[in-house]
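[job 0417] fold request received: FAD:protein FMN transferase
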Amino acid sequence: MTSSTPRVRFDASLWQLPRPATPANGISAGVASGAAVNFGGVHWQSARMQQQSDGRVHRLSGATMGTTWSLRLANPDYQPMEPVQALVQQVLDAVIAQMSNWEADSAISQFNASKPGQTQTLPAEFAHVLDAALHWAKLSGSAMDPSMGALVSLWGFGPRQKPLQPHAASLPLAQDIDRLLQSSGYRHLQWNADRCELLQPGGLELDLCGIAKGFAVDWVVQRLQAAGWQGGLFEIGGELRSWGRRPDDGLWRVQLGTGAEDESSPLVVSLGEGSFATSGDCWHRFSVAGRSYSHTLDPRTGWPVQHDLASVTVFHEECMHADALATVLTVLGPEQGMEFARQHAIAAVLTAHGQERRQLKSPAWIQRFGA
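[job 0417] inference complete; emitting structure tokens
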């Protein structure tokens, strides 16, 4: 199988929201060596893939961005997996080199450290992700915002020397939050999309942790498709995308995490083409003086979200957009988030805290996957 030049889709169809539709044992490669790089210190509970008894479905796994990745690949001809492992790692390393705040020499870190008035030409993939993030920032009224890196760091969720240690469990000063809110926000960005040029207004820091992981999933899948692989399911820390079918012509089947400790009411879905992303506060919280704080910041206030949502799962054709929308709905909360999902035909499940683990399913989700 031949590979092709790394490319992603840049056509207008990326901005289309989900279209309503009718319901519809392998090889293990060890975890990749080297230190894991993390976009934001978030360790998601991964979606669990259905166990495959068909030996023609081969498995690979590795580590990236502070979490793990896994691949189920339809391989009826039993092609060697070493080139596939190398291809996946190559793409993930490229995403890290462009968009990881945890790498001092990455493209995003270079922008964040640049002086006021400096202009940086972004790599095509970085520019593509920034365009998508700005799209959802504007549409959602800043429920997500890619320019909140300084506030993320202030709250202790940004790059730190020992990323695997628990949060320091301390609160920033209110005046520091207000100060950074004044210099943050996508409206301060001076972005020339035609020339892929971004000007640093001064003190503004980008953080793409709410969208870059989903993009990485998309890029890996597109590279595998370009290399001739007809079907598979690829996942990074709970963000996943499938394409084609299994060797027995069946659909891929996944169990999606909802944040429940016992997962007594799991979301189990079958799909051929599409992506899921999950966001929530069950997997990364800290407490101060008896009060619990989520890792998810509301860009409109600079403070962690305070509603009772435990998790949000979104389906979209592109994992990058599913990732961004999961963040948007998490920030908006159960009522506003569901209304946003209804208005824009987003297939989503919102799970609230509490003993009953109340689940709210959007009309688009019910139409596609059933109640």
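[job 0417] notes: The chain has eight helices and 18 strands. The longest strand covers residues 57-64.
[job 0417] exit 0
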